[in-house]
Amino acid sequence: xxxxxxxxxxxxxxxxxxxxxxxxxxxxxxxxxxxxxxxxxxxxxxxxxxxxxxxxxxxxxxxxxxxxxxxxxxxxxxxxxxxxxxxxxxxxxxxxxxxxxxxxxxxxxxxxxxxxxxxxxxxxxxxxxxxxxxxxxxxxxxxxxxxxxxxxxxxxxxxxxxxxxxxxxxxxxxxxxxxxxxxxxxxxxxxxxxxxxxxxxxxxxxxxxxxxxxxxxxxxxxxxxxxxxxxxxxxxxxxxxxxxxxxxxxxxxxxxxxxxxxxxxxxxxxxxxxxxxxxxxxxxxxxxxxxxxxxxxxxxxxxxxxxxxxxxxxxxxxxxxxxxxxxxxxxxxxxxxxxxxxxxxxxxxxxxxxxxxxxxxxxxxxxxxxxxxxxxxxxxxxxxxxxxxxxxxxxxxxxxxxxxxxxxxxxxxxxxxxxxxxxxxxxxxxxxxxxxxxxxxxxxxxxxxxxxxxxxxxxxxxxxxxxxxxxxxxxxxxxxxxxxxxxxxxxx
Length: 492
Hints:
The protein is of the alpha/beta class. The protein has 19 helices and 20 strands.
């Protein structure tokens, strides 16, 4: 796919290496050369470098790094974790070359300007043994920048899981392509900056993909023959006392994402608030009680939905028995694409059958806590097992699930997740989820497939956050900044 780059699991990376027709020692040598080149370029003043090596192939890469650094005039030592007699194959060759180059092996941590992590590579999974865990903690405490070879030790390449001690790298130099562990949390938070080095492998099939900004090229744009309805008609259902901002942001985001017309069904007692706030959005007052819509609002909402291409259900809706009943009724009756967020997800917990049986596209946009509630699992489990969690949500609910985070994951039933990590920390602000919901609704209204609409919306908000940061910086970015940047993001 032209809009995505491959993400490799450990098994897929092994398959790529097996397909290589030359001597595998060449791959190890190229890996070492590339890591050394990055170190020399990034840290030109570093004179003493400590390379921490395991006894496997990753350690073999580390020995090759050490040889290259000594050849470039740097002082280098290797701290070997494990018995030397366990080193075999290509790694034994690169160790021998390191010894010939004069690289000493040491048993204890030594002062260094840069520390290189070559303990474990893509084959690692599970939890480090106590001795390895102690070494990792010592490495992290060494001070100064840490460069990881291929993957920070302690991170699962195939999932991003971190079950025990793991290296916190400043820079990771990986080979051939990114692995899932580089981009999926919590692994992504250990990798630092990731640089991909070409070591001569050919592209091989992968199940997972990482979206690029080119995904936005697939979003339909307004054409000369469009009118406001054909450009995309969105209905937003939400709002309650104290929560008028959420549906307002969703509505405005849908417009800035290219929807031609947006209508908001809101509590009648709060309609004046929305009338003043939403100049370009039509409002439909609906029956409410104490500022929260009641099941009696269903008729007005269904009537408003007749000309909508997609419905955003839940932003600021409130959490009452009445809103839960309203969400259930609407999901049963609406025959249009729906994106469900916030209080709509709260209402859905314990009732996944409400969406499983829907024929029209349905997208859920939970954060870790909301997905945990839908699955009946702690939010901590979701945070630690994001790939498994988003796939379980998609399969259990039978719909597209967009799991929000620094690495947003989008999965459909039986479809491997797409990773979208184009944003910046400025998105960690109240209302950014409401903006995302509006963009998903706009793209659904334009006729995009549910999974593609969700991934494109996440990409759009990510690019918009970069645009907004240029004007406002990241430190104080607010959701409205992202809304205003949506159109430039799609127009660039």
